[in-house]
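User: Predict the full complex structure for these chains.
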Amino acid sequence: DIQMTQSPSTLSASVGDRVTLTCRASQNVRTWLAWYRQKPGRGPHLLIYEASTLESGVSPRFSGSGSETEFTLTISSLQPDDFATYYCQQYNSYPWTFGQGTKVEI
Amino acid sequence: EVRLVESGGGLVQPGGSLRLSCAASGFIFSEYEMSWVRQTGTGLEWVANITSGGINTHSAASVRGRFTISRDNAKNFLYLQMNSLRPEDTGTYFCASGGSYFQNWGQGTQVTVSS
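Assistant: Here is the predicted structure of the two-chain assembly.
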């Protein structure tokens, strides 16, 4: 199975900050990578797919980059709604796997 | 508006069975691959997916032979039949649209396997 490792586990930030989250794959996943945001008590929400494609309706303050084994999610200006947990997920080869998450907190 | 509403979770003893359902609305259900994803104490885990017509499925090794994903396109429902349940199957089960990455998610249904 492909292991996905996210860093940091927790990130402390303030409204208006620019933050970058990292996701590393244990094998080459090309650009078959998605990012999600999850708030407590709710299902995850798709932000980015194919490593850098913004999902329809998602704010352009979110951007994704990377390929093969190294990926980043950048939030250009944190908003109150963005304090949540972020997950990456590879869909290059079965079984699809998720990272353990990065919690963005105030 | 896309809506996915899961139901059927609950408390079950080890070795027992549950059938989860997911009611879909707001999109052409029969045109989309669908998936189940669970969230346990160890994080998010993809469980299974099914093609739009229901012919082909894939599942995680941890549930293969015990869980079966299916769908009824006439009723816009997705199902997960879970047999031989184990304590490690405890978690929140989400229905999601998409077979590879997951565009829309339900709110989840809680499954607890305990004696």
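The two ends of chain B are 40 Å apart (CA to CA).
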